[in-house]
Amino acid sequence: MKVLVCDNLSPKGIQILKNEKGLTVDIKTGMKPDELIAAVPGYNALIIRSSTRATAEVMEAGKDLKVIGRAGVGLDNVDVEAATKRGIVVMNAPGGNTITTAEHAVAMLMAVSRNIPQAAVSMKHNKWEKKKFMGVEVFGKRLGVIGLGRI
Hints:
Elements: E1 2-5, H1 11-19, E2 24-27, H2 33-39, E3 45-48, H3 56-61, E4 67-70, H4 80-86, E5 89-92, H5 98-113, H6 116-124
Parallel strand pairs: 1-2, 1-3, 3-4, 4-5
């Protein structure tokens, strides 16, 4: 089975694919839509993230495609209807980035509580306004994150 990886994946993920018996893995990132259409014939699987769009035209060119894997949550960059019509299985990895995203949310919460973005801009303008950007300590306080989705 031939796999075309179109967007950056972690080296660990690539290694897992390459260790799978019977898989030939090619990595071609940064392709424009017409380059992807030209490259996809002969591949059985397409792995994408957010940058690549799996359009009806891509699937038409990829006559041997059997599966499209989206390394991420959404499928907004995959024409699921076109894939269904062609019998192509579409999968995503909704939990793949939950830890990273949750950690990022906490980091942003801390940055906002300490005025880090504003202080960084001030520093870039060669100012040292320490008292202006003191922020607040979060110790002893209750914090909450209100959000939607799985994270």
